[in-house]
Amino acid sequence: MQQKLLGEATGQRTFAVVLETGDEVMASLQSFVKERRIAAAQITAAIGAFKSLELKYFDWESKTYLSNRIDEQVEVASLIGDVALAPTGEPALHIHLVVGRRDGTALAGHLGSAIVRPTLEVVVTESPAHLQKVEDPTTGLALIRPEI
Which of 11, 58, 102, 114 might form a disulfide with 128, Cβ 3.0–4.6 angstroms? Predict the structure, then answer.
């Protein structure tokens, strides 16, 4: 993984983070935000491709995430997300994405994991105001609560 600070002003930093073949996306980005001490950010742009990934879908009835494993080369058509502090105080990533298959069909969901091939270029923009997640009793999920 390579990274570069693109700009900094009034507590807001913008980074380019470039992952390479074989990098696991969630682990790499989690390492990046911990290293840079980022507690709130938007992931607004990412392009590249994966050799495999796990998409997750939140099942409302069971209140659990269902996994959908994709073991083929796909193009990243859209990837967006955020960073906020988990109830534990650690930075937590929440990423949604759409990937395209060779035949032009698309798959989408929460990103569980992904292996990059050949690259993933990500823009991360830190916010000077931190966001906090709180466990929601209805879903069991840690959800952002701006008032905290």
Answer: 11
